[in-house]
């Protein structure tokens, strides 16, 4: 038989209401917060330590780079940087296609923002650069503002031809304008310490959104796999229309491109599975993506796949770096909404992954500084023809798993990308675009695994499952921008719904303890006779104050309106009886003179007068006897028995004489809450039920005092530290023994 070991504790103290607590705990009336003037003066004060702290907070690299240990970190960062740099090359070119930009701009995006984040970022393990979700969001904007139809011209032999160069140049301008505006939003949010905004994007929402975005990415790459040219659709249901159009064009599939795609997919999937199975044994993961790109480029170049089989290839890749250019500000008005959405989504992905690695390795990530770092990466990158960036899950995992310790690994990966752009980039001109599409497909595996969230959330939290499904479906059906807006709106509605539908409960005591638990959830609890203890599971505010009052009446079994009417009726009857008694007394006084005048002529028996008795006076005496409940002692003296307590106990038609409102879950009170509590005290007081508050936090007490809640009718002595304090006070006040509370546990 299993034996349980119990630990007991005994505390002996006085019953504490709020007044006595303030005295015993020596509550101060002073304010520890500096005044506005003091804060302004402090912010303007400059000193060398203060300046150093400010510089280190804004440029974190100055804090950790001088202490960089070459012996401990150099080897791991070198291996990690090379591995990530190799991944940057294929992913940069492939994700550029998602953004509807030439592949070389994906390489630029894998270079400049990484260097900026090295200076200003606080995460040691995330890999900044191109990412599928960000690329598809940028691509939806570039294709909307620069569709192929705007660049159609007449070709040779009367054919219709799209001016690819002009289209791509304008799309680059759009992407740069979108990126610089995204960066400005992120910097401003970081400066005003608005990093907490990402908290409103719950994990189910982010995962549902990225899964829906993965479906958009998948559909957008089907045209390269099958070698078809579907029409371009925008707005709600564009994904469905595109998928239908691709299915319609399947009979026109370019077989050579399909073969290239299938072979590439088979090789990539097989080798990636090998990397996963032998992750612990391999010193480095096999760079299969880079190997496939090199092999495919060689085969395409020497076999002439472009000319013989009309396979679509990457085309010209300029060598060298372009001079910085100022983004076109005239496009800001057309992309401002998209820029804000990109800013929020990019930051949400970045901070969620950054905090995951920080928690694993025991360091802290500054959410506001991450906003600034990401914003600077986007802003600076936009001047060098980069589009919006965030961290990549696959590259970050490689950077962490291959031994990367700091962002020096990011610098090394940038060097590899820089060498490629300067010297090797032109060699990939014959690379089939289908190869890049298959790389995108394979890297979506992690996102598609998020479909496993559905059965998990079904078992754990139905509301989060609903948020996930609504986010996924709205992203699929309404596109990325509207889908995000609908998702955030729905997520906020679920929060409001939970606030509007809190759990209300009546508490009972666990015998032998000072614990008071929900009587519906714990069968071992019992209510204190005559006392109702009521609690809400959430903060009482203007959105649920009325529901709080209704639940209080329902749970306590007290119909306030009915009892108030009954009390008014009783008061009216008492006034009528009192008025009748006064009239009877007046009539008796008038008759006294007549009785005295006849007493000399009356008949006496045994010394008692047998004169007439006034009937009205006799009736009133009966009523008075009934009301006063007169009794007799054994010696014949009269005893007046007061039933004041019995009247209070039965005033509400039950045995309830006191109600305790447990406000321990309330974090703040507003004007509506204060007025509601004041009305509860007034209404229940009118039917002779005492109200008490317990468990108020210090901030709530201060807010009640500021609102003028406490008064002569609601003294501060009605506020107690704990429910048990209030119960003991009530029992003592009513002269009941508190031994009923200390029955030992079974």
TrEMBL record:
Residues 521-730 form the STAS domain. GO terms for molecular function: secondary active sulfate transmembrane transporter activity. This is Solute carrier family 26 member 6, like 2. It comes from the Eukaryota. PANTHER family: SULFATE TRANSPORTER. CDD domains: STAS_SulP_like_sulfate_transporter. One of its GO terms (cellular component) is membrane. NCBIfam families: sulP. Coiled coil: none annotated. It is a multi-pass membrane protein. InterPro entries: S04_transporter_CS, SLC26A/SulP_dom, SLC26A/SulP_fam, STAS_dom, STAS_dom_sf. The chain crosses the membrane at residues 95-120, 174-196, 258-278, 290-311, 331-353, 465-497. The keyword Cell wall biogenesis/degradation does not apply. SUPFAM superfamilies: SpoIIaa-like.
